[in-house]
Amino acid sequence: MRFSGYMISVSCAVALFAISASAATYSIPPEKQNARKVYYGTAAGFEKPAKVDYESVIKATPEYEQVKKNKLEPGTGKYWILLSEASDRAVHAISEVGKESGYDFIAAQAYLGSLEPSIPSEDITPLVLDKVKDKDKVKEKVESKGKIK
User: Fold this and answer.
1) Which residues, in sequence order, are CB contacts of 14 under 8 Å at separation 6+?
2) By Cβ atoms counted within 10 A, which residue in 31, 47, 62, 85 is the most buried?
3) What is the pLDDT of residues 33-50, one digit of tens each?
4) Measured between alpha carbons, how far is 14 from 45 in angstroms, rounded to an integer?
5) CA count, 13 A, side-chain hemisphere, 47
6) For residues 52 and 125, is the Cβ–Cβ distance under 8 A?
7) Helix, coil or strand: residue 107
8) pLDDT at 149 over 80
């Protein structure tokens, strides 16, 4: 009976080691790090990387829609203010998706694939787009009740 308990303990320890060993840890060398292409996490070490189409997320924001609707030209103050707000909304949505989904590193869509060796990642653009659209619905509900003008 004691031998069986020992074997079970050893088997569990081996299985735990195998699981922890299978979780790959990635890092990007300092000379290849580009902070402008990283939206969430740190390039020094991560286990669950993701990529996002940042331009698509920006274009899905109400701020960008307002730029298009009002045909605002680049170079005008209103254009840059709205684009800055769209960027803030996009980065916030990306961070929320990272926190909620367990991705510990989120970068621009082509960034991780362009590294040598490339780092496999999952495209989370649909999740981020859903997050941006959900925020719009909440904002619309509050505005329709007359609380925000």
Assistant:
1) none
2) 62
3) 999 999 999 999 999 999
4) 25
5) 7
6) yes
7) strand
8) no
